[in-house]
């Protein structure tokens, strides 16, 4: 399974492709950063990011896309550009019918380092170790994109294994195993994993039934 | 000149097409709202909005797109979806090389009602009068989209006329005329209009020179 991780942004958008299976060694396929010039108009910058992400998807054919879930911080102006940039991989996934997951920064940090409050250096260090790299990917956005992909493979791996297992008993064991693997525990996480699983099942059912999942309702009035 | 106004959102995305020239009577071409079901995944909802906006652009062939500029409010969760939805018309404009403008809520209200703090009812009332409609468009998102298009035509009209006029003296007179037309005055607005003008000129120059304006800078490292 191959995952494209996207750490969204207009100034720097981190991209990382990681391949592997849960419980197996993971392999980095590609890593990079899309930078767009601040002097360009925001919509031109968005298109630049889209052009590049589309190219990455064409080049590396990921099975899934993982995007960092954005929260509001002090820098509201920056957050708007980041939120808009996050729409790009979301749209790509929806258009291509690729599974999409949004992971929070603390989920990513917990999955990679075992600590939801780890700093950039710790994340970079663990990404380097997990992927067997010679040095930490730079800038931090690139390392974050790889961490996202790793997080998704390890968390997504749970769903893949459950789908194969099927039995309710096996499911609970595998949930616990997944929690341990991600270095996190507790009923909140369990509820999250359950919710994720239901979402994945719904998406899979929708894909299997040939339904697009796209159901816009539009009212339109025209005065000639 | 025909303008597509977009009041972005996932639950309701207002769309309005208005045709006209500065100083002339404006005409409503189309108005509507895209609604996407909250039970759909956010990325599916974004794609629904994109599919619909692309269809509107194909159907109505606007010369420009105007999008409401989003600011952070109390409802941070809602604002993220709105910011992501705003990326859709921005990407469309960039992709198609259509001029794009972002107008703030107070600019829109000031342009339509003469008061930057007007309420929804006042905006709906003035939109109805300006476009000679029999009743106010509902829901408010639809009226807001029309207000955006009107705002853009009146503000953008300034640029169009200046481009034709050229002379510095005429430019100042027309700036003042545009300010009066939009029911606003003051040096802030003048500076804004100047900035808008420069942006429009730059975009026009870029289009004329065949330059796309898209200059992504990407670093990519691949480990085979």
Automatic annotation (TrEMBL), chains A, B:
Source organism per UniProt: Ornithinimicrobium pratense
Positions of region (Disordered): 205-224
Keywords noted in UniProt: Cytoplasm, DNA damage, DNA recombination, DNA repair, DNA-binding, Endonuclease, Hydrolase, Magnesium, Metal-binding, Nuclease
The UniProt record lists the keyword Cytoplasm: yes
Subunit-structure text: Homodimer which binds Holliday junction (HJ) DNA. The HJ becomes 2-fold symmetrical on binding to RuvC with unstacked arms; it has a different conformation from HJ DNA in complex with RuvA. In the full resolvosome a probable DNA-RuvA(4)-RuvB(12)-RuvC(2) complex forms which resolves the HJ.
An example molecular function term from Gene Ontology annotations: crossover junction DNA endonuclease activity
Top EC class, one word: hydrolase
Main location: cytoplasm
Co-factor binding details: Binds 2 Mg(2+) ion per subunit.
Gene3D superfamilies documented for this protein: Ribonuclease H-like superfamily/Ribonuclease H
UniProt cross-references to InterPro entries, sorted A to Z: RNaseH-like_sf, RNaseH_sf, X-over_junc_endoDNase_Mg_BS, X-over_junc_endoDNase_RuvC
UniProt EC number: 3.1.21.10
Role summary: The RuvA-RuvB-RuvC complex processes Holliday junction (HJ) DNA during genetic recombination and DNA repair. Endonuclease that resolves HJ intermediates. Cleaves cruciform DNA by making single-stranded nicks across the HJ at symmetrical positions within the homologous arms, yielding a 5'-phosphate and a 3'-hydroxyl group; requires a central core of homology in the junction. The consensus cleavage sequence is 5'-(A/T)TT(C/G)-3'. Cleavage occurs on the 3'-side of the TT dinucleotide at the point of strand exchange.
One annotated Gene Ontology cellular component of this protein: cytoplasm
Binding site for Mg(2+) 2: 68
Protein family per UniProt: Belongs to the RuvC family.
Compartment(s) of residence: Cytoplasm
Any one of the GO BP annotations: DNA repair
Catalytic residue positions: 7, 68, 141
Ligand binding (Mg(2+) 1): 7, 141
The name this protein goes by in its record: Crossover junction endodeoxyribonuclease RuvC
Keyword Nuclease on entry: yes
HAMAP family, alphabetized: RuvC
Cofactor dependence: Mg(2+)
Catalyzed reaction equations: Endonucleolytic cleavage at a junction such as a reciprocal single-stranded crossover between two homologous DNA duplexes (Holliday junction)
